[in-house]
Design a protein that fits this description.
heterotrimer, A: 406 residues, mainly alpha, two-stranded antiparallel ribbon, 6 strands, globular, B: alpha/beta, Rossmann fold, 12 helices, 15 strands, 43% helix
C-alpha cells in the first residue's frame, strides 16, 4: 500500500520537474530576456490539476470512493441488464426516434454539428469495412469522399442531374476508385499499405487541385444544387412541385436517411458470408486463404464497399455546402476518420457512431477556448486512447485467440 | 496564460466527472460582433491579425463613447481553420450567439459557404481578406468587401512592369490557391495583352519550403521580372531568401498576402527591393494614426489584413451606431451610405458590396515598407 | 548541362533533408513498428529550440562557434527529454494494445505538440541567425552554399555513426534484440522499456539536429513545419525498408531527387504525385522496400 503510494508520488514529482524543464525554454526564453513568471504560472496550474487527479486516484485505491464506485457499478450493471434485456432493434428504433425528433428541439448550431456527425458516421462506417473488418490500414480514405463530392458537383453543374440520381453514380465512381487504389496494394501488408494508401489520397487531392479543366482547381466548384424532393401541391388544382432542401432540417433528414441505409447495409454485410470472410482475412490471411477464402477478390471488394459509403457521404457533402474545393480532402481528414473508427472500437457499429460523435463534438465543445481548441483536442484524443485502448465500444469477438492467452 | 490554466483545470474536471462542464454567462445588453478567420492551421498568422484588428476597432469605438443602448461590446472570435466545413459550423455558432455582424473570413473557400449560411439570417458579413471576385458577385445583399479585388491588383502590377520597370520578359509563379492562382492568371493574361512576354507560368504547392527547382528554372531563363504570387508572407520570405542565394537578379513583385513585417524579419537583406502591390496607406492621416495607436502597443506591427479587419469592424459598429438599431436592413442602409476616411482606405461601397481598390506599388526599403509608385500618375512618391 | 547539375545539387540537398529526418524516424520505427506522427513535431521543436537557445547564447557574448555547437547540443538534449516524456505518457501504457491504438495516441500527441508550439511561440515564423552560415562557392555555373554541403555531410556522418551504434555497440545489440522479440529479449536480461526509451531519445535528438539544420538552410522555422516532412520521412523510411537505416537514407534521397527532377523537367505542381507514384511502383515490385526489412513482419 505505502509502496504503491510512494511510487505514484515519485512518478508525479519526477513528471512535474521533467515537465518544467520542457516548458521553461519554450516560455521563459524570449530573445535575451529570461523570465520565469509565465512558465511558472502554467506549471502551477498543471501541477494543481494533476495533483487533484493523483489525490482522486489515491482515494480510489484506498477505497474511500468505493461507495461511489459501487453506486456507479450498480448503475452500469442495471443499464447493461436493461440493454441486453431488449433486442438490438428496439434500441436502434429508440435511437432513430430520438434522431427524428432532434430538429424539434435543437437550434441551428446543434443541427449543423449533428449533420457533420452523421456525415462522419457514414464515412467512419465505410472505413470500418476496410480497417475494422478486413484489417487493411487505409490512410487515404478521404479520397473516396472527394471522388463522391466532385462526381455530384460536376454532374449537377454541367448536366443538372438531380442529387438522388447522382447518389448511385457517385457510389459507383468511388467504388471504381477503390478498386484502383486496392489493386496495387494487395500484395502489401501493414505499414507499406498505410503509406501507399496515404500516397493515393494525396495524389487524388493534388490532381483535384491542379486539373483546372475538370475541377476548376483551387477555386472549387460553386453553384452545386441542393437535394430536392417532389411534393404534391394542392394550391391550384393538383401539381407536383419541386422543393429544394436547403434548410438545415431538410438536409438533416437527408443525411439521416443516408446514415440509416449505411448502418443497415454495414450490419447486414458484417453478418454475411462476405463479412465473415473479411474477418477471417483480418485474423490470419494465410489461414483464410487455406480455408478457401478468395483473399484477392475479397480484399478488393472491401476497398470497393468502403469507398461506396465514402462516395455517398461525399455527394451529400457537395449538396450540403453547394460548394466543393480540394481543401476539404486533406490527409488530416483521413486521419480524423480513422481516429473515429479506432476510438469507437474497430468493427463495431455503435462504436463508430460514438467515435464520430466524440471527435466532431469535442472540437466544437472546445470552441470556447479559441486558440487552445486544438491543443485540448489533441490531449483529449491521447487520453481517451490511454483509457480505452480497444475503443469506446469494442466489437464482440468470436472465439479465443492465441495472442490473448499469453 | 490564465486561459491555459483554466483549460487544464477544466479538462481534468471534465475527465474525472465524465462530463463536460460548460458555463453560461448572461450579461445585460452586450453587443456581440463575430469574427471568422483561421486561428489555427497554416494561415493562423493572418487569421489572428484579422481577429486582432477587429478587437482594436471595438476598443476604439468604446473609447469614443461606445454605442448607445449597449453596456459593452465583445468580439466572438471563431476559428474557420480555412476549411469549408468548419467555417459553416462556426458561422452557425455565430448565428446562435446572436452576433449583429461578422468580420471575415480569410480564405475565399471559407467565405463563400459561410456567407451563404449567414445570408439565411440576414447577418451582414464584411470580409477584410477574401479578394476572389466571386465573393461579391453572387447577389448577396449582406456581403461586403473591404479589401480590393484580384482583378484590380493585377492591373497595377502589370502597369508597373511595363511603365516603370520597362520590362520585356516576366516569369510568373503561384502556389495554387484560389487567391494566388487567380492573381497569377490575371497577370499572365494582361501581360500578354500589353506586349510583355510571359516566359513561363509555373506553380509550387502551398506548404512547400524548397523552391530550388523552380528558381533554377528562373535563373536559366533570366527574366526581367519575377511575379511571385504566394498565399502568405512566410512562403514569400522563403522564396526571397532562396532567390537571392541562387543569384537571381530579376526584380521581384509580390502582392498583399506577402505584405507582412515578418517578410523583412525573416528574409532580412534578401527582402530589400521587393515590390508589392498594396492599398495606398497614408501613414499621416488621423484615421490611420488612431488605428496604429490602439493596435501596436497590444499586438505589435500590423499585418496585411489587420487594417482591413479594423476598418471592417469599425464600419459595422459605426453603421449600428448611426442606425441606432441592430436591424440588418437598417445596418445595410447605413453601410451603403458610408463615405468616410478609414485607416486603410476611403470607405465607400458600391451596389454589389465592393469598396473599390486603391492599389499602389510599395517597396521594401531599409527593412520597412514604403510607398513607391502611384499607378494613377505614373510617378514615384 | 549547368541546369541539370544545378538541379542535381538541389535534389541532393532536399534528399539530404528528408534523409536526416528519416534516419531518426526509422530508428523508432524499427524497434516498435510505430508510425510516429509526433516525430515531425520533435523536428519542429528542435528547430525552435535551436533558434531560441542559440539566440540566447549569442547574447551572452560567447564566440559564435561555441554558441552554435552548445545550442545544438542543448536543443538535441531537450528533444530527447521531450521524446522520453511523450513515450512514457502516450506510448508506454499502450504497449500491449493494438497498433492502431498507439497510432491514434501518436496522432493526438502530434496535434497537441504542434498547438503547444503555436501557443508558446506564436503563429508567425521565427527567423534564424543565418548570417552565421551564409556564403557558398560556385563550380562553373553551379552555385553551392556551405549549408548544402553541411547537410549532405552530416547525413553521411550520421549514417555511419548510426550503423556503428546499431551493429557495433551493446545498446545497438539490445535494440536489435528488442526489435525482433520483446519477450525473448526480456528473458535474456534486456530491459526493453529502457531500450525503447533510449531509442526514442536518440531518434528525437536526430530530429532536433535536422530541425536546426533545416532552420539554418531555409532561414526560418514555423510551428507547423513538422507535418509535411513527417509524412515525407515516413515515406522515405518505408521506401527504404522499415527499420533499415541505410534504406531510410536511400529512400530520403530518392524522394528528394524525384521531387526536384519532376519539378524541373515535367511539372512542378505534380511533383508530389510523381514522388508518390515512384513510391507505389517501388513497393509494388519490392513489397518490403528497397533494402528490405531488418525485422520480419509476422507479428505486424
Amino acid at each position: 500500500m505505502t509502496r504503491e503510494f510512494k511510487k505514484i508520488l515519485r512518478f508525479w514529482g519526477i513528471g512535474l520537474v521533467w515537465f518544467y524543464f520542457l516548458l521553461w525554454p519554450l516560455m521563459g526564453l524570449k530573445g535575451d530576456q529570461v523570465s520565469f513568471a509565465d512558465s511558472l504560472k502554467v506549471w502551477a496550474a498543471v501541477a494543481v490539476a494533476s495533483g487533484l487527479c493523483v489525490v482522486v486516484w489515491l482515494l480510489r485505491e484506498r477505497g474511500v470512493l468505493d461507495p461511489l464506485g459501487r453506486g456507479l457499478a450498480a448503475g452500469r450493471n442495471a443499464a447493461r441488464a436493461a440493454y441486453s434485456g431488449l433486442p438490438v432493434w428496439v434500441w436502434a428504433l429508440v435511437g432513430l426516434a430520438c434522431s427524428l425528433c432532434l430538429p424539434l428541439v435543437a437550434n441551428r448550431y446543434v443541427m449543423d454539428v449533428f449533420i457533420n456527425v452523421l456525415v462522419y458516421v457514414c464515412l467512419g462506417l465505410g472505413l470500418n469495412i476496410v480497417v475494422g473488418l478486413a484489417g487493411l490500414l487505409d490512410l487515404g480514405y478521404i479520397a473516396f469522399y472527394g471522388v463522391g463530392a466532385y462526381t455530384y458537383a460536376l454532374l449537377s453543374i454541367h448536366f443538372g442531374i438531380s442529387f438522388w440520381l447522382c447518389l448511385p453514380v457517385a457510389a459507383v465512381f468511388a467504388a471504381i476508385a477503390g478498386c484502383f487504389i486496392g489493386y496495387p496494394t494487395l500484395r502489401m501488408r501493414g505499414d507499406y499499405l498505410a503509406i501507399v494508401t496515404l500516397g493515393f489520397g494525396e495524389i487524388v487531392r493534388i490532381v483535384l487541385n491542379n486539373w483546372m479543366g475538370l475541377t476548376n482547381g483551387p477555386n472549387g466548384i460553386l453553384g452545386v444544387k441542393a437535394p430536392s424532393v417532389i411534393w404534391p401541391s394542392f394550391a391550384n388544382g393538383f401539381e407536383l412541385e419541386t422543393i429544394w432542401l436547403r434548410s438545415l432540417d431538410g438536409l438533416y433528414y437527408v443525411i439521416l436517411g443516408l446514415t440509416v441505409v449505411t448502418v443497415i447495409s454495414v450490419y447486414r454485410l458484417n453478418y454475411s458470408r462476405v463479412g465473415r470472410a473479411w474477418e477471417a482475412i483480418r485474423e490470419d490471411e494465410t489461414a483464410a486463404e487455406l480455408m478457401g477464402v478468395n483473399t484477392f477478390r475479397l480484399k478488393l471488394l472491401a476497398y470497393a464497399m468502403g469507398a461506396v459509403f465514402g462516395g455517398l457521404a461525399g455527394a451529400f457533402f457537395a449538396a450540403r455546402f453547394r460548394f466543393v474545393s480540394p481543401e476539404s480532402f486533406t490527409f488530416l481528414e483521413s486521419a480524423m476518420v480513422l481516429s473515429m473508427v479506432v476510438l469507437g472500437g474497430m468493427g463495431s457499429i455503435p462504436g463508430v457512431i460514438l467515435g464520430a460523435l466524440a471527435l466532431i463534438a469535442l472540437p466544437e465543445a472546445f470552441r470556447e477556448f479559441e486558440l487552445y481548441r486544438m491543443l485540448a483536442f489533441g490531449a483529449a484524443m491521447t487520453i481517451m486512447m490511454l483509457f480505452r485502448p480497444a475503443g469506446l465500444i469494442p466489437a464482440p469477438r468470436f472465439g479465443s485467440r492465441s495472442e490473448e492467452a499469453d | 496564460m490564465k486561459k491555459l490554466a483554466a483549460l487544464v483545470a477544466v479538462l481534468c474536471v471534465a475527465l474525472m466527472l465524465g462530463a463536460c462542464a460548460k458555463e453560461e454567462k448572461k450579461e445585460p445588453q452586450v453587443l456581440k460582433l463575430g469574427s471568422l478567420s483561421p486561428l489555427t492551421g497554416p494561415y493562423a498568422a493572418d487569421g489572428n491579425d484579422i481577429a486582432n484588428g477587429a478587437r482594436t476597432a471595438i476598443e476604439v469605438i468604446k473609447s469614443e463613447g461606445g454605442i448607445p443602448g449597449f453596456d459593452d461590446i465583445t468580439l466572438v472570435a471563431q476559428d474557420s481553420a480555412c476549411d469549408p466545413r468548419q467555417a459553416v459550423a462556426a458561422a452557425n455558432k455565430l448565428i446562435n450567439e446572436k452576433v449583429v455582424g461578422v468580420v471575415g473570413a480569410y480564405c475565399s473557400s471559407s467565405t463563400i459557404p459561410a456567407s451563404e449560411t449567414l445570408a439565411e439570417q440576414n447577418i451582414p458579413m464584411l470580409t477584410p481578406a477574401s479578394t476572389n471576385e466571386k465573393v461579391t458577385e453572387r447577389g448577396l445583399k449582406y456581403m461586403f468587401r473591404i479589401c480590393g479585388r484580384d482583378d484590380d491588383q493585377s492591373v497595377v502590377a502589370v502597369k508597373f512592369m511595363t511603365d516603370y520597370l520597362k520590362a520585356k520578359t516576366v516569369f510568373v509563379v503561384d502556389d495554387k490557391t484560389t487567391y494566388s492562382q487567380g492573381l497569377a492568371d490575371n497577370v499572365e493574361k494582361l501581360a500578354g495583352e500589353k506586349g510583355l512576354e510571359v516566359l513561363m507560368h509555373d506553380h509550387v504547392n502551398q506548404g512547400d519550403k524548397d523552391y530550388s527547382a523552380v528558381l533554377t528554372k528562373i535563373k536559366s531563363m533570366n527574366p526581367d521580372v519575377l511575379y511571385m504570387s504566394l498565399q502568405n508572407s512566410s512562403s514569400g520570405s522563403l522564396m526571397a531568401i532562396q532567390a537571392k542565394r541562387m543569384g537571381i537578379t530579376a526584380k521581384i513583385i509580390g502582392q498583399d498576402a506577402v505584405y507582412h513585417p515578418q517578410l523583412m524579419e525573416i528574409a532580412k537583406d534578401a527582402a530589400e527591393g521587393i515590390f508589392l502591390t498594396f492599398g495606398y496607406i497614408d501613414v499621416d492621416k488621423p484615421a490611420y494614426k488612431k488605428f496604429i495607436g490602439a493596435y501596436e502597443p497590444k499586438y505589435g506591427q500590423p499585418g496585411a489584413y489587420s487594417g482591413y479587419a479594423y476598418d471592417a469592424a469599425y464600419t459595422l459598429l459605426k453603421a449600428i451606431k448611426e442606425a441606432g438599431s441592430t436591424d440588418p436592413a437598417k445596418i445595410r442602409e447605413k453601410i451603403m451610405a458610408m463615405d468616410y476616411e478609414g485607416a486603410s482606405k476611403h470607405i465607400k461601397f458600391m451596389e454589389n458590396g465592393d469598396s473599390g481598390s486603391n492599389y499602389i506599388i510599395r517597396v521594401v526599403k531599409d527593412g520597412a515598407f514604403a510607398n513607391f509608385w502611384d499607378p494613377a500618375t505614373g510617378k514615384t512618391y | 548541362m549547368d541546369y541539370f547539375l544545378q538541379q542535381l545539387t538541389n535534389g541532393v540537398t532536399l534528399g539530404g533533408v528528408y534523409a536526416l529526418i528519416a534516419l531518426g524516424y526509422t530508428m523508432v520505427y524499427g524497434i516498435i513498428q510505430l508510425i510516429n506522427f509526433a516525430h515531425g513535431e520533435f523536428f519542429a521543436a528542435g528547430g525552435y529550440m535551436g533558434v531560441i537557445l542559440i539566440g540566447w547564447l549569442l547574447t551572452t557574448g560567447a564566440p559564435p562557434w561555441v554558441c552554435l555547437s552548445l545550442g545544438m547540443l542543448l536543443a538535441m538534449g531537450y528533444c530527447a527529454m521531450l521524446a522520453m516524456a511523450v513515450e512514457k505518457v502516450a506510448y508506454k501504457p499502450l504497449r500491449k494494445a493494438s497498433r492502431l491504438a498507439v497510432l491514434l495516441s501518436a496522432l493526438g500527441m502530434s496535434i497537441f505538440l504542434q498547438n503547444g508550439l503555436m501557443l508558446t511561440q506564436g503563429v508567425y515564423d521565427k527567423a534564424y541567425p543565418t548570417q552565421m552560415t551564409q556564403g557558398g562557392f560556385a563550380i562553373g555555373n553551379v552555385s553551392i552554399s556551405y549549408m548544402q554541403v553541411i547537410i549532405v555531410a552530416v547525413t553521411a556522418a550520421l549514417l555511419i555513426g548510426l550503423n556503428l551504434l546499431v551493429f557495433r555497440t551493446r545498446i545497438g545489440k539490445a535494440m536489435r534484440a528488442t526489435a525482433q522479440d520483446k519477450t525473448m529479449s526480456a528473458l535474456v536480461g534486456i530491459n526493453a522499456n529502457r531500450v525503447i526509451s533510449t531509442t526514442f531519445a536518440i531518434g528525437a535528438a536526430l530530429a532536433a539536429a535536422a530541425g536546426i539544420m533545416v532552420g539554418f538552410y531555409y532561414g526560418s522555422v514555423r510551428y507547423d513545419m513538422g507535418f509535411v516532412p513527417g509524412i515525407k520521412a515516413f515515406a522515405a523510411a518505408v521506401l527504404g525498408g522499415i527499420g533499415n537505416i541505410t534504406g531510410a537514407m536511400i529512400g530520403g534521397f530518392v524522394i528528394g531527387l524525384v521531387e526536384i527532377f519532376a519539378a524541373a523537367y515535367i511539372s512542378s505542381q505534380y511533383k508530389d504525385v510523381f514522388a508518390f507514384i515512384i513510391l507505389i511502383a517501388v513497393l509494388y515490385f519490392m513489397p518490403t522496400g528497397i533494402m528490405g526489412e531488418n525485422v520480419d513482419d509476422t507479428r505486424v
